[in-house]
Input
Amino acid sequence: MTTPALGSQALAYEWIKFRSVRSTVWTTVATAVLPVLGAVFVATTGSLQSDDTVLGGSLTLSVVAQMLAAVVGALVVTGEYNSGTIRTTFAAVPSRTAVLAAKAALVAGVMYVLALASCTAAYLVGDALLPDGRYAQGEPLPALFGIAASFAVAAVLGLAVGTLVRHSAGAVTTVIGLLLLPSLFGPLFGDAERWIAGLSPTAALEKLTQTSDAAADTVGSLGPWPSLLLVTACTTALALGALVLLRRRDA
Output
């Protein structure tokens, strides 16, 4: 079987499994719904800070939604390890590189499309419900495309961690820690803070949403797009490390 055909077969298998597992489906649904609910909550409660933007306020719950995207990425692989079906997967598609690449392409693609639609809807809802002229609008374009990309990166990060840890609870705990800890500990590293604090997809997301919470001492002083490129590079490196380990150890 040629490499493209093998990749297509692996992707088809992964899509079937993705749609068949309740935990993955419902976590994905929650990822899509949360940003819109957050926009409605902020607008109806009047809890938006005066120095915030409509875009940032509307996407208040996007950070939580991004965490769920990372959880989805982890569950896509740890669910198979927990049930033992990973052996069946490797029997059907012997190339472990093709299996992991298919999983990565699937979670990244699903989360990108889902986040783009959900976050765009959340912004439109917030813009419609918030008082006109009271808050700065923000710049939704091209930021919304970067926001969607940060969800895709978070999902691949979860996949990489799940591949390394192979246990659902451990993988979920680890990936949420990776999303939150850089911002918490970045200020402790002095001049390196701009790099350390900006290492997680969450930091890039907060910058892209142009929220007033995205202070340099919590999410790093890199701009939103350089921050997104940095976390993408780090996530890619971790995913490649996970692939190396996956190919070396037994299922």
Remarks:
- The mean pLDDT is 89.
- The first helix runs from residue 3 to 20.
- The CA atoms of residues 157 and 235 lie 6 Å apart.
